[in-house]
Design a protein that fits this description.
Strand 3 and strand 4 form a beta hairpin. The protein is 33% helix and 36% strand. The protein is globular. The protein has one domain: Translation Initiation Factor IF3 (2-Layer Sandwich). The chain has 70 residues and is of the alpha+beta class. Strands 1-2-4-3 form a four-stranded mixed beta sheet, covered by helices on one side. The protein contains two helices and four strands.
Length: 70
C-alpha cells in the first residue's frame, strides 16, 4: 500500500479541513498522513476526522503534528 502525505502546516482552519477533505477523496486506497501545525488546528481537524476514521496522532516537533488515518 502506498503512503501519501499532505502537509498543511502553512494553512489555518478551515483551509486545513478543505485540503484534507480533497486529499482523502483523491487517495482512497492509500495510507494517508496529514501534517499540520498548532494544537487548535489539530483539535478541530481530528474532531472532524474521528467521525469516519481511527486516528494515530504523533507530535513531531514544536507544535507540528502528524495524523495517520487508520
Amino acid at each position: 500500500m502506498k503512503k501519501k502525505v499532505l502537509d498543511v502546516t502553512n494553512f489555518k482552519c478551515p483551509m486545513t479541513f478543505l485540503k484534507t477533505k480533497e486529499f482523502i477523496k483523491l487517495n482512497i486506497s492509500n495510507k494517508k498522513i496529514i501534517i499540520l501545525k498548532g494544537r487548535k488546528d489539530l483539535e478541530l481537524l481530528s474532531n472532524s476526522l474521528k467521525k469516519n476514521f481511527k486516528l494515530k496522532v504523533v507530535e513531531k516537533n514544536n507544535e507540528i503534528f502528524e495524523i495517520e488515518l487508520i
